[in-house]
């Protein structure tokens, strides 16, 4: 299968349906719903006004199109004609970062182990491919689809100019610093020379994501440092001092997981674990859980349905008891014939008597007695 050239890409624009990019953010507008060949897709606009489609670039995009894996977000193609220079991928509604920071979503060990296992399998596939490494691994580049399957995205596209070639010292923009929070220290020191990343750099990024999955907050929140200062400390590590890393003290997670994290974010890249070793180290943690996350979700839904049935039965009993109390009070306040008519919703027929007796009674101390009684006790 041959990748379309620039002219054929231009002709294919008639099959596209998406809004124009926001020139300020370089991303798809929030209200846009891009479609390609009738399927909703994700469109990410490139921060370049134009892209020269070289042979090497076409070859790399061909490799990306050929990558097929359950835990890889499918690369559909790219448009290189201004002003619509963009990358198009399979659509997923949310990313891992959004999921982890949503406190309304409860993640038990089954969900956590499933997400971690998917991430490891996806990274192994990338490392075994001709793409070699991800280079920009972070929670926002880990998508979660409707079946709770994690898919890795945003790799192998640096040749399209998505990452600007500029020195770290010249970048004071907070958005730029956010992109570097999961970047390995050695890559921070050579940010202008190795935009594609390394496999050991991916291991470092994986460790930070693993930390965030278990703690449900960013790996650097406990440092209380401004992001620019944090990046500088990670970049300029002094020999003999302990490198800056997330705090693992008091974490409520398996000890093997903690040791795996620490071995993945070591300062020396050569000492970090490769993903095959990571898979082996976390094998027991993953195998202790059910293998199918979808079956697990269905089980949780069935359990939730059973709990709802029990709750409805309890509320029904409470409703019947309250109904009986209301009927008893009605019987005590009104003649039985009138109360029975009101219970069934029938109109009360007025009755006329030619003569009646009116009884007046004065209860001594009634005012004081009623003040000490409840409304239900007064008629009794």
TrEMBL record:
GO molecular function terms attached to this record: adenylate cyclase activity; ATP binding; guanylate cyclase activity; peptide receptor activity; protein kinase activity
One GO location term (cellular component): plasma membrane
Q: What InterPro entries does its record include?
A: A/G_cyclase, Cyclic_nucleotide_synthase, Kinase-like_dom_sf, Nucleotide_cyclase, Prot_kinase_dom, Ser-Thr/Tyr_kinase_cat_dom
Q: Which residues form the Guanylate cyclase domain?
A: 357-380
Q: Which GO terms describe its biological process?
A: intracellular signal transduction; receptor guanylyl cyclase signaling pathway
For whether the record's keyword set contains DNA-binding, the answer is no
UniProt superkingdom: Eukaryota
Record domain Protein kinase: where: 1-286
Q: What class of enzyme is it?
A: lyase
User: EC?
Assistant: 4.6.1.2
Subcellular location, in the record's words? Membrane
Return the protein name: guanylate cyclase
Organism name: Octopus vulgaris (Common octopus)
The lineage is: Eukaryota, Metazoa, Spiralia, Lophotrochozoa, Mollusca
